[in-house]
Amino acid sequence: MRRREFIALVGSTAAAWPLMVSAQPPALPVVGVVSGRSPESDTRNVSAFYKGLGEAGYVDGQNVTVEYHWVEGRYDRLPAVMADLVRRQVAVIATTGNNTAALAAKAATTKIPIVFAVGADPVKLGLVASLARPGGNATGVNGFLAEVDAKRLRLLHDMVPKAVRVAVLVNPANTWSAEGALQGTQEAAAATGLQLRILNATTIADIDAAFAGFAQERPDALFVAADSFFSSRAVQLIILAARERLPAVYSLRDFVIAGGLMGYGADLAEMVRQVGVYTGSVLKGAKPADLPVLQSTKFDFAINLQTARALDIEVPSGLLSIADEVIE
What's this model's pTM, rounded to 2 decimal places? Predict the structure, then answer.
């Protein structure tokens, strides 16, 4: 190629560069979803989030990029996860059913929109100014944790009325969840005459140690507080409860499907679906300050009859009549 032709070719190519750059499609907005669970225990909620997002008109990979981050009960990882999302200036941070994750997001940014699902009162948590007018950069769904905990303990009492000593398993690393469980169960215990023994567990070894301690001081029943770490350890908890022949109540129907005796709580998947819908609204331009905090209205009460028979428990007809799901 002659020198003059080469210079002309380079010149024409360079002139086209700005046009080529301007023709590149804009980057998709990124949504960072943070869950306290493990991927294996979170499949139903992941599907629910994508469903809600789809209802708002967003599909992962088409007009939005969704990044999931699972901390698997390791709440000490949350600050680093949130800091990375803030550094990269994601469009929205969504937290799915964990008070500690929502608080970590709020502590990390006052600018990036946050959509949460929490069990405690978000006003008391400091996430919003009020339920009707959140103000600030956060909004979401509230699942009434303390109130649900009180009813869950009363349901356990109805299932095994002869039980007096109840072990309450909480995760102190999830402060607000643990405090809500203690408040709710203590109120219900005072009304029903139950004696509570509080047990703390933040690791797999702690759960094993808690059950090992039953050899010295055996409870009549077990209450497992709502917590993402406990949800990720559902199989471990159910196996240990079966080994000790302990009637146990859990926070989610997932435990009952896996073999737990009974579960009662807000439908977490429905809450996460609503988080997906609100996330889509924010992507469209809505401000969290103007989106009222939603109140969970769907609660699941499930009973596993096969587990009840294994424990020689005759389930009262009154409980069967109000159960949303009875697993044969």
Answer: 0.83
